[in-house]
Amino acid sequence: MLSKVGTRLMQGDEACAEGAIAAGLRFFAGYPITPSTEIAEELALVLPKVGGKFMQMEDEIASISAIIGASLAGAKSMTATSGPGFSLKQEGIGFAAYTEVPCVIVNVQRVGPSTGVPTAPAQGDVMQARWGTHGDHPIVVLCPSSVAETFTLIVEAFNISERWRIPVIFLMDEIIAHMREKVVVPDASEIKLVERPRPKVPPDAYLPYAAGEDLVPPMADFGSGYRYHVTGLTHDETGFPTTKGSEVDALTRRLDAKMRKAAPHVTFVDEFMVDDADVAVFAYGVTARAAMRAVRDARAQGLKAGLIKAKTLWPFPEGHVRRVAERARAIVVPEMNMGQLVLEVERASAGRARVLGLSRVDSEPITPDEILATLQEV
Amino acid sequence: MSGAMAMPVTHYLRTSKMPHIWCAGCGHGIVLGAVLRAIDANGLDKDQVCVVSGIGCASRAPGYLDFNTLHTTHGRAIAFATGIKMVKPELKVIVLTGDGDAAAIGGNHLIHAARRNIGITTICFNNSIYGMTNGQYSPMTPTGSLASTAPYGNIEEPFDLCELVYAAGASYVARGTAYHALLLSKLIAKAIATDGFSFVEAITQCPTYYGRRNNMKSAVEMLKWQKEHAVPVAAAAKLSPDELACKFKIGELGARARPEYTQRYAALIRAAQDEGVEKDA
Question: What are the backbone angles phi and psi of residue A192, rounded to the nearest 5°?
């Protein structure tokens, strides 16, 4: 194990890099962009020491393309970027989702659109993380709200991507990326690692896109004796292109069903004091920290408040919202955007609870007092 | 390279995936045959060859080949190939690409792979046109040619791709044509045997979308054009620039030993790990 085990003071980007290596990352390709650059810098330093490889590519698209190639050759792979770079990576994300190549894409959110405020935090890429690339596709989006959580959640990102052969977006924000906090780095033996399913049949019997009950086809490494074809064109179970309606339909539906099957295994939500809550907050990322404080302050004032802290944003944890909405009269959704996941909370609560968005888009974090004031109003 | 193949071409083909999508008269089959003969001449094990492509007519070739094959997004084949080569340097990684794929949307990846001199062989099927989308001009379309998006004649100058790639740092650069198929195969064989980044531009004909718009209605006419306009490097050395105008050089255009990227990276890893040992000691 490379990381120094034990209690350490770490930066969010650093925890992301070290957690990724602990998860088995061995190939990283990236392009410098604030506020994710420290991830690349850390990996440039550390990856070679564990026999892994770091590459600074000529652009963002080359970076995502290279990590998909690396993953096809058998390595756990990752890239990291921010806003404008995330837009550029959408092409590759779609390819990885469609060809079911495991990989992790870190997007440290900053103020956008376009170049925006490069060094300031935002949460404006939540919908893009789900739907940024064209076409129906499965995707998992995880979002940490502390440096310690960054370390543990990036390990989950790799495990999910390997287990389900779905690209995982690791959606950080500038505050979590740049802040320094205590992290208890576990010993390697305590970190559970997952490998992609590999074929158990001989090469001549291998159908690269035929899935069993779990809907995840086994994946052979390039150069391992399984000579197969991978294409971004719509493909049948053999991996070769098809335009036949029934086969196009079958692939889209299997990928959708795979995502649904994976959902309970990839949904991480922390709930605080929601069981008797009359009012609740749904929050994620840096905003969840202010929300926690607001809920505690509300309780201290006699208001029965609770918090749903989503660590998985997609698939959207609708069951958690629905359960809380059954009791609570209102759910407040503070976001550093003009209202993105609030729409999902509305959908999941389906009229059971009143849903209120709370937007802040001046590049400053939402404060506990702002959330508390809203809780007191509803 | 001897003319005879150790294995028939079909040994390297997924014949069950035929017929291919290429039009009658298209030169891509000739170029692909040259690639397979070159692979054969190098005696490569099929499991150890990885063929990567982007988007376009040429990029459909890997689907017909019995190797590890990857058909990627437009222009990005070399970037995907870079990831594969980095993880498995022992693989022979070959990129098959077209002139639009390599010189337009993928131009940046092409020059940077050459600059790094990573051990990837790139074969550019240059038919001077976007065939898959029915005949738009590419960065390799000759000035004055007609195309569906150049109805008044192309006013842009094409790249000299070989000069570009060599200037960027590749170890090996050559140009051949579908007409000179045996020479082409020889050049590709040498490219594959090269340690660093190697690049072969294969001039090929698209009678459907280039020829018929530009007074060359048949594949035969286009092949004749290749024959008449290609000048072997040795012969070109004796000609004046005026005599060479409107002609192009074929043969080996550049070969040099430069450190290969994955080998450099292996050395970097050894250095980084040794440093760690010293610090711990």
Answer: -80, 125
Q: Which residues of B17-31 are buried (b: 16+ CB within 10 A; e: fewer)?
A: beebebeebbbbebb
Dist CA A12 CA A30 (whole Å):
17
Number of domains in chain A: 3
Q: In this structure, are A257 and A334 located in the same domain? A: no
pTM: 0.97
Of 3.90.950.10, 3.30.450.20, 3.30.470.20, 3.40.50.970, which CATH number belongs to B9-280? Answer: 3.40.50.970
Q: Quick one: A208 and A176 in the same domain?
A: no
What stretches of B100-193 adopt beta strand conformation (E)?
120-126, 129-130, 136-137, 172-177
* A347: closest CA of chain B, how far (Å): 35
Contact predicate B95/B81, CB 8 Å = yes
Task: Please check whether residues A38 and A173 belong to one and the same domain.
Answer: yes
Contact B69 A229 (CB under 8 A): yes
pLDDT, one tens digit for every residue, chain A (378 residues): 467 899 999 999 999 999 999 999 999 999 999 999 999 999 999 999 999 999 999 999 999 999 999 999 999 999 999 999 999 999 999 999 999 999 999 999 999 999 999 999 999 999 999 999 999 999 999 999 999 999 999 999 999 999 999 999 999 999 999 999 999 999 999 999 999 999 999 999 999 999 999 999 999 999 999 999 999 999 999 999 999 999 999 999 999 999 999 999 999 999 999 999 999 999 999 999 999 999 999 999 999 999 999 999 999 999 999 999 999 999 999 999 999 999 999 999 999 999 999 999 999 999 999 999 999 999
A92 contact residues in B (CB cutoff 8 A): 73, 76
Pairwise CB contact (< 8 Å): B87 & A232: no
CA distance A158 to B198: 35
Domain of A38?
A: 6-190
Nearest CA in chain A to B108: A58
Q: Which of B14, B21, B65, B88 has the highest number of chain A CBs within 10 A, making it the mutation to test binding with A?
A: B88
- ipTM for the predicted complex: 0.98
Which of B50, B82, B87 has the most A C-beta neighbours within 10 Å, making it the best mutation to test the interface with A?
B87
Q: Which residue in the set B72, B79, B108 is minimally distant from A232, CB to CB?
A: B72
- A310 and A282 share a domain? yes
